């Protein structure tokens, strides 16, 4: 393929690029040198006028063949860009030493909190190589006495924007590099599906904080444009972090965060074929205090988190230069502004099963840095309910027998059902033989920790059930017990006919029925389902005979209407033709239907 210069020139003011999933061992970029205090002056390099605006240091490793080049290439209307090139392959077995990577740093400014951004091209003849940038970098030049061959030795936080069989697979990742060696034991990579833009994007590497240090990579269609992808945030502390290679653990300060350093760009390729590398960049910038500086990092909840506690506090990390901030928060599509005094905010009790959005805009000396929009989803269902059990997590009968044991010692009556289900792929089958003493069977689920059902507007215990027409009439009950043993059972309003219905029914019970009987709803420890009232069921006196019902989606929900109107059979908060239809569908063979 040929480098698509026209596309790159059109896109580079607006587009970014992608990084790989693999850790490339000999990567160049970043800091370990003794860099004292971080300067605050931001810089941008446009390469306009076929000249450098900043003081750059360029080098490669290994520096043997002399075929590494960095060249400013003319563009139309003086829209020039940098090309980093190596034409000789690196093949140590064959003693061929084209450089594995080439890098450039702007050496007159050292940064701590910073966003390094650039337009980068990965199409055409750049599509088979690795590209990237780094920050908080330190380096020194090796004459060969340290690594065996001359060249630059560097340490840094880096971001890759790479091909992986472009265009179908395009990847970005972030890494920590120590003395040219990848220090990662865990990947922070993101696969971006085949994209347009002619292979030209805008990439940004953000670093905030000292200990811990937060490192995140972003990919945009163009600078200031839509966000295409972002990596997870690498959190670097002064202990051995889970993502760090243990081989570096015994050698401090290798595990310590890089506190400050230079910003730069690099190209690399450690493959023998294709030989060398070719990467083009434009509009490289290193910004700390200005309006294009690093965006706030969302620590809790993490961006994209699910099953988030409804009492969660929002917490984030912002630039050390931030003087104030504006928080935008709310349900998806309905964010509102707030002005927290610090880097946390208590939004109060949220709703169950809702998707929320938030964004933190920082005010810094150079203006306002608008954050990205983060999202999270609270625990519970989309109906605003807290799911107690939908039975989808069980793999076998033994699993559900442990979670919902029965009270009959000589037999197991709890089974995993995969055919007759209300929703999803699984339900619970509850069998019983109440022709034998004690003439009742109870399943009980015990929570590991007491559950608080007084929060989030919860007011209704709900479950879906269906029976079999040939079941013998039996009364059905649901009970709750709190952590000090107070308990209460509520009978099914269909009385003894409930177990004979052959269509799924939703049974809603107001929690006030339990609390009114002394159950502490803030400390619910057990939930039980019982069939039978202690009198013989009338089933045949045979160990082979058992009746059964099916249970699915046990949950606690907000109160949508009063449930004390028993005529609301279908539970839609109205007494209408739907209730008559439900009754007609469940009409029993005796030709009668009993309302409580």
Q: Could you walk me through the main structural features you see in this protein, from its secondary elements to its overall organization?
A:
This protein has 3 domains: 5-287, Jelly Rolls (Sandwich); 297-378, Sandwich (Immunoglobulin-like); 386-585, Sandwich (Jelly Rolls). Helix content is 5%, strand content 41%. It is built from 4 helices and 38 strands. Strands 1, 3, 4, 8, 14, 15, 16, 17 and 19 form a 9-stranded antiparallel sheet that branches. Strands 2, 7, 9, 10, 11, 12, 13 and 18 form an 8-stranded antiparallel sheet that branches. It is elongated, with a radius of gyration of 32 Å.
Class derived from helix and strand content: mainly beta
**Distance separating the two termini:** 78 Å
CATH topology of the largest domain: Jelly Rolls
Number of strands: 38
CATH architecture of the largest domain: Sandwich
**Helix proportion of residues, in percent?**
under 10%
How big is the Rg? 32 Å
Largest sheet: 9 strands, antiparallel
**Low-confidence runs (pLDDT<50, min 5 residues)?**
1-40, 588-596
Q: How confident is the prediction overall: mean pLDDT? A: 85
Task: Provide key terms for this protein.
single chain, 596 residues, mainly beta, Jelly Rolls, Immunoglobulin-like, 3 domains, elongated, disordered N terminus, disordered C terminus
């Amino acid at each position: 393929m040929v480098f698509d210069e026209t596309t790159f020139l059109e896109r580079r003011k607006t587009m970014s690029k992608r990084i790989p999933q693999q850790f490339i061992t000999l990567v160049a970029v970043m800091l370990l040198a003794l860099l004292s205090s971080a300067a605050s002056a931001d810089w941008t390099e446009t390469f306009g006028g076929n000249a450098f605006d900043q003081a750059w240091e360029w080098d490669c490793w290994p520096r043997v063949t002399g075929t590494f080049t960095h060249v400013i290439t003319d563009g139309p209307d003086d829209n020039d860009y940098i090309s980093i090139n190596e034409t000789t392959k690196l093949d140590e077995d064959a003693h061929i030493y084209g450089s594995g990577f080439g890098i450039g740093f702007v050496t007159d400014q050292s940064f701590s909190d910073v966003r390094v951004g650039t337009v980068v091209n990965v199409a055409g003849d750049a599509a088979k190589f690795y590209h990237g940038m780094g920050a908080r970098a330190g380096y020194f030049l090796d004459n060969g006495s340290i690594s065996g061959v001359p060249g630059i030795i560097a340490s840094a936080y880096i971001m890759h924007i790479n091909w992986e069989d472009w265009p179908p697979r395009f990847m970005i990742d972030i890494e920590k590099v120590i003395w040219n060696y990848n220090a990662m034991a865990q990947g922070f990579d993101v696969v971006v599906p085949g994209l347009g833009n002619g292979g030209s994007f805008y990439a940004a590497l953000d670093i905030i904080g000292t200990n811990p240090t937060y490192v995140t990579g972003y990919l945009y269609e163009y600078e200031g444009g839509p966000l295409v992808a972002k990596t997870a945030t690498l959190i670097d502390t002064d202990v051995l972090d889970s993502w760090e290679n243990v081989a570096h653990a015994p050698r401090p300060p290798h595990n310590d965060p890089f506190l400050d350093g230079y910003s730069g760009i690099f190209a690399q390729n450690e493959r023998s074929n294709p030989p060398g590398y070719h990467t083009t960049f434009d509009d490289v910038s290193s910004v700390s205090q200005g309006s294009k500086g690093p965006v706030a990092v969302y620590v809790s909840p993490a961006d994209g988190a699910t099953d988030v506690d409804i009492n969660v506090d929002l917490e984030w990390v912002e630039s050390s230069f931030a003087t104030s901030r504006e928080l935008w928060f709310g349900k998806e599509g309905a964010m509102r502004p707030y002005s927290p005094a610090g880097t946390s905010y208590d939004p109060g009790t949220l709703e169950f099963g809702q998707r929320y959005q938030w964004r933190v805009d920082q005010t810094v000396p150079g203006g306002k840095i608008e954050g990205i929009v983060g999202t999270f989803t609270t625990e519970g269902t989309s109906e605003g309910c807290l799911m107690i059990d939908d039975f989808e997590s069980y793999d076998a009968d033994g699993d559900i027998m442990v979670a919902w044991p029965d009270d009959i010692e000589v037999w197991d009556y709890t089974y995993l059902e995969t055919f007759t289900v209300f929703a999803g792929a699984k339900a619970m089958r509850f069998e019983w033989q109440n022709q034998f003493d004690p003439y009742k069977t109870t399943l009980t689920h015990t929570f590991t920790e007491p559950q608080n059902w007084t929060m989030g507007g919860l007011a209704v215990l709900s479950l879906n059930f269906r029976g079999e027409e040939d079941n013998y009439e039996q009364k059905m009950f649901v009970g709750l017990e709190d952590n000090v043993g107070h308990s209460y059972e509520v009978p099914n309003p269909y009385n003894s006919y409930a177990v004979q219905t052959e269509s799924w029914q939703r049974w809603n019970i107001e929690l006030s029925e339990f609390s009114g009987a002394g159950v502490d709803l803030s400390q619910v420890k057990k939930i039980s389902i019982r069939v039978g009232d202690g009198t013989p069921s009338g089933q045949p006196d045979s160990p082979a005979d058992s009746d059964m019902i099916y249970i699915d989606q046990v949950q606690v929900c907000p109160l949508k209407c009063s449930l004390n109107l028993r005529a609301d059979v279908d539970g839609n908060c109205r007494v209408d033709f739907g209730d008559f239809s439900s009754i007609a569908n469940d009409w029993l063979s005796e030709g009668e239907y009993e309302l409580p």
